[in-house]
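User: Second chain of the day. Same drill as before.
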Amino acid sequence: MFTGIITGVGRIAAVHDLGSSSSFGKRLEIEAPADYLDDVGLGDSIALNGACMTVTSLDLPARRFTIDVSAESLARTAGLDRTGRVNLEKALRAHDRLGGHIVSGHVDGLGRVQRFEQVGESWALDILVPPQLAHYLAYKGSITVQGVSLTVNAVQDGPQGCLVGINLIPHTVEHTTLGDLCAGSPVNLEIDTIARYVERMLRHKESA
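Assistant: Same format as last time:
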């Protein structure tokens, strides 16, 4: 489990094929910030851009760790098949503060940035969310974008999906990879876990 509060920005330094066809996944070498890996061990979970992955090797002097990403995960996420910056979050410990919201690290779908521009001291981020995820979103509810816990400020349903408006404070832009976004960028999305269970209970009640 995670909280959607990014604890470091790393970099995918190298991508290695695990096989000769598209049915194989990839092995990623990630360079972490200084001292980030001091309390990390083999088999630990770290979310990369919101996708929960398992640490398969550690090179502490080089500040690097590796993960293996399956072809299925690559097909359902964005930004894990090439070098570049990534948001990092270590798995939640029982005594940690829950600063964001409950995040599982399972990407539910891909959104696409429609607008990202500065408005006053903050930044306006509009994302087109796939229709199948639209009913999970609500004004002042939570959504995870690229692993970052964010508050929904506007919801507008349309034929192509749901346009979600989000306000980003400067701190979030400066300390995550969200500042790298632009119109057209694909983003990993995870809906609120509570919304998922509410929908399940309502469906069960209607069919009873």
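The mean pLDDT is 95.

User: Great, on to the next one.
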